[in-house]
């Protein structure tokens, strides 16, 4: 998944988020998700429970996996 990709988060557990992106479902590490789109400015800091997050990686892309494990196969 490219930086800035919008994903729908269904659940988060043990550092992994179950997501849907580009019509596929899988899991990504929550440390690479952000509630705001990278590069956008926010005027106020508001805490909102959200189901939409954005991929936030500094280089390369993020692999979406079949389960919440580093060793799971890539979707």
Textual characterization of the structure:
- With 75 residues, the protein is an all-beta fold.
- Helices cover 0% and strands 35% of the residues.
- The protein has no helices and five strands.
- Strands 3-2-1-5-4 form a five-stranded antiparallel sheet, with no helix packed on it.
- It starts with 5 loop residues before the first strand and ends in a 20-residue tail after the last strand.
SS field, number of helical segments: 0
What global shape is seen? globular
Uncertain stretches of 5 or more adjacent residues: none
Number of strands: 5
Summed over residues and divided by their number, the pLDDT gives a mean of: 85
Q: Which structural class matches the secondary elements?
A: mainly beta
Output the keywords.
75 residues, mainly beta, 0% helix
Which SSEs are present, and which pair or pack?
Elements: E1 6-13, E2 16-21, E3 24-29, E4 33-34, E5 52-55
Antiparallel strand pairs: 1-2, 1-5, 2-3, 4-5
Short description:
By secondary structure, this protein is an all-beta fold.
């Amino acid at each position: 998944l490219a930086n800035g990709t919008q994903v729908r988060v269904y659940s988060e557990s043990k550092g992994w988020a179950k997501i849907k992106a580009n019509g596929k479902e899988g899991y990504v590490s929550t440390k690479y998700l952000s509630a705001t789109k990278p590069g956008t400015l926010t005027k106020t800091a508001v805490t909102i429970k959200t189901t939409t997050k954005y991929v936030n990686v500094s280089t390369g892309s993020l692999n979406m996996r079949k389960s919440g494990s580093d060793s799971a196969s890539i979707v």
